[in-house]
Amino acid sequence: MYAFEPFPPLFSQLTRQLKQNPAFHDRVTCLPIGLAETPGRQMLYTRAGANEGVNTLFQDAQHQQALEEIVLDTLDAVCKAQGIKRIDFIKIDIEGAELSALKGAEQTLRAHLPTLLLEVNKQACAAAGYTAEELLSFLRELGYRRFERVGLRGRLLPLGELPAFSNLIIRS
């Protein structure tokens, strides 16, 4: 299992938490990078006084406070460098950067068609310059056909019309 966290204080917290749980400590490889369409560095923004879990790469009316520049890479490059041969499941919740991360994982997604758990926030998508519908269209082009919304208590529901905010399970 691999976990990616580009913001140093949250990366430290993640690794500390894993060290406290011996059942997972040796099963999870933590990498201090973010995932994107192309490798590089980019500024991370937050809302003043906000939960650091809502940091984003996209400055907007709510996210004005620059935190620090973070390192980005593609999932395709990470898989090659780490020798990852099989992927069954990917969870992505990266505040609008989902499409960029998925584009940087295109080879991996085409090869494995892993089940995806994505947080889709239309406002965050707009801040990043795309629509949630474009995100779903990209996944359809890769061979994904089953789109379900996670409802109360984890119940899977037909997607229907995409709400302003939802968690989706996406399968080929």
Poorly predicted residue ranges: none
Strand order across the largest sheet: 6-7-10-8-9
**CATH fold name:** Rossmann fold
Taken in chain order, the helices and strands follow as EHHEEEEHEHHEHHEEE
Highest-level CATH class: Alpha Beta
What portion of residues is helical? 25-40%
The largest sheet, given as strand count, sense and whether it forms a barrel, is: 5 strands, mixed
Mean pLDDT: 95
Overall body shape: globular
* CA radius of gyration: 16 Å
Proper CATH architecture? 3-Layer(aba) Sandwich
- Measured by DSSP, the beta-strand proportion falls in 25-35%
Write the layout of secondary structure elements.
Layout: E1 2-4, H1 8-19, H2 22-25, E2 29-31, E3 34-35, E4 40-46, E5 65-73, H3 75-82, E6 89-92, H4 98-103, H5 106-112, E7 115-121, H6 122-128, H7 132-142, E8 146-150, E9 156-158, E10 165-171
Parallel strand pairs: 1-2, 3-5, 6-7
Antiparallel strand pairs: 4-5, 7-10, 8-9, 8-10
Structural summary, described in words:
There is one protein chain. The chain has 172 residues and is α/β, with parallel strands linked by helices. The chain has a single domain, classed as Rossmann fold, CATH 3.40.50.150. It has helices at residues 8-19, 22-25, 75-82, 98-103, 106-112, 122-128, 132-142, and strands spanning 2-4, 29-31, 34-35, 40-46, 65-73, 89-92, 115-121, 146-150, 156-158, 165-171. The strands form 3 sheets. It has a 5-stranded mixed beta sheet with strand order 6-7-10-8-9. Strands 3-5-4 form a 3-stranded mixed beta sheet. Strand 8 (146-150) and strand 9 (156-158) form a beta hairpin. It is globular, with a radius of gyration of 16 Å. The two termini are 21 Å apart.
